[in-house]
Design goal:
491 residues, alpha/beta, TIM Barrel, Jelly Rolls, 8-stranded parallel barrel, 5-stranded antiparallel beta sheet, 20 strands, 20% strand, globular, binds 2-acetamido-2-deoxy-beta-D-glucopyranose, hydrolase, EC 3.2.1.51, GH, signal, Glyco_hydro_29
Amino acid sequence: MAEPNNSLHIFTFLLLLFQLAFSWKVTPPLPILPLPSYSQLKWQQREIIMFLHFGVNTFTDSEWGTGLESPSIFNPTGLNANQWADAAAQAGVSLMILTAKHHDGFCLWPSKYTDHSVIGSPWKNGLGDVVQEFVNAAKARDIDAGLYLSPWDRHDKRYGHVKLYNEYYLAQLQELLNRYGSVREIWFDGAKGSNAPNMTYDFREWFSMVKELQSSINIFSDAGPDVRWVGNEKGYAGSTCWSTINATSLSIGNASTLDYLNTGDPKGTNWLPAECDVSIRTGWFWHKSQAPKRPSELLDIYYKSVGRNCVLLLNVPPNTTGLISESDVQRLKQFRGAINTIFSTNLAENCSLEACSQRGGENGGFGPKNVLDDDHLWTYWAPSEKQKENYWIEFKPKSGKIKFNVIRIQEAIGLGQRIKKHEIYVDGIKVARGSTVGYKRLHRLEMGVVDGFSVKIKIVKAKGIPLISSIGLHFDPFWKPKGKVISQRVH
Ligand SMILES: *[C@@H]1O[C@H](CO)[C@@H](O)[C@H](O)[C@H]1NC(C)=O
Ligand SMILES: *[C@@H]1O[C@H](CO)[C@@H](O)[C@H](O)[C@H]1NC(C)=O
Ligand SMILES: *[C@@H]1O[C@H](CO)[C@@H](O)[C@H](O)[C@H]1NC(C)=O
Ligand SMILES: *[C@@H]1O[C@H](CO)[C@@H](O)[C@H](O)[C@H]1NC(C)=O
Ligand SMILES: *[C@@H]1O[C@H](CO)[C@@H](O)[C@H](O)[C@H]1NC(C)=O
């Protein structure tokens, strides 16, 4: 009689024989919880989302309206939402979010529950609906729509009367989520002036209603439930940034959790990735006196948001004509152009690859070559389960040296975020290191351009075996590192 231990070995051996004989595929490894939802994965792949702040503030040259503005000042005579959507499409954006109502309470759609809206405006003789035009324009270009409905309302008299205002807010949510087709993201924030009346929002009821009306939507707020705030309005994530966090430690409008929001939590029990909101200009609304940020600033934001496992929510405000200013349109084009210039070529594409080990051996389907294909989610290099540490993957050009100044690493986040610490070596010399990777980690090399015969990525610490879906070596012609410049390392 065989010992139980031996019978397990015999079983494993037979399984292996069967696999060989019938060429079964080696199974993927088990995931590490928590995992993203379908909608969260889709959101993550968007990388850049566009925000449009538009309303009475556009016409009063302010950021926070008082709620006392007359609807008659809202008159964007040349409003053309197709121009907004064209600008977004050129910038490679697949989701646009509009401020349907900001803190001033003015509604960009004809709500049944108030007269403080476009109904009272000269624009289209009170027959206009900005939300409808926005949604139509986006849809025509295959861009998804999202909406922001400010909880804080400085106009409505019901604000401060808990039951009445929650009913009013929920009624407007139902209008927005029932009338305008598919809405992919809804934005809630905790912004509120210090003198505002006390008000308790029924967030649980609101969120439940949102999910009931739009099943594939992502709800953004300081505390999720689908997407969290990154904790600042600069567009910067922490250099450590986990998509996981404990939602129970978060609450909306709680300033004491900003650092936690910025970095996430390796032990977090919720998948709640961060969105980095920032405006292309100083303010969120359009002001004649302001200009868009320089391309180098936008690129810096890209590296510190998308390049740190987050999605960038870039605000581009329409002007009083109702159009996005030409300077902003041009800036968006330059920004997208720069991203394409840097990332459309993977300098590692023809390299030969080697790794410490691979799941299922040579023909297991989890070899290092997977990091060079076009799938950045579901094909990946997986080391053997037997390997418990010292994970590495190495690139060698088939001839000569490889020269680059940016490295891109992507984890197969569909199976959980795992990497805690990683390092990059060129010909045995460390050129970059970092902690988390997540969906996408970008390193712009501090020392500038490096060249060498081999590039090795070491995964020093991870939760379980690391799974890497993509790696790229790139050249960023715009990157001019400050400080100790060793722009070329000569051998
Ligand atoms: C809000 O409530 C707090 C505590 O109940 C109270 O101290 C404060 O005066 C209230 N503020 C307003 C504006 O009503
Ligand atoms: C803010 O967050 C901290 C840390 O999670 C928590 O201790 C505190 O109770 C929260 N405050 C409010 C008002 O929710
Ligand atoms: C988050 O929750 C996990 C599981 O309960 C716990 O181990 C961890 O310490 C929590 N994180 C923080 C910062 O409290
Ligand atoms: C708004 O932008 C459009 C498009 O660039 C421009 O034609 C128009 O003059 C701008 N309006 C204002 C008030 O600057
Ligand atoms: C890889 O090889 C192909 C085919 O020879 C070539 O067209 C391409 O430019 C090479 N890529 C790089 C980054 O050198």
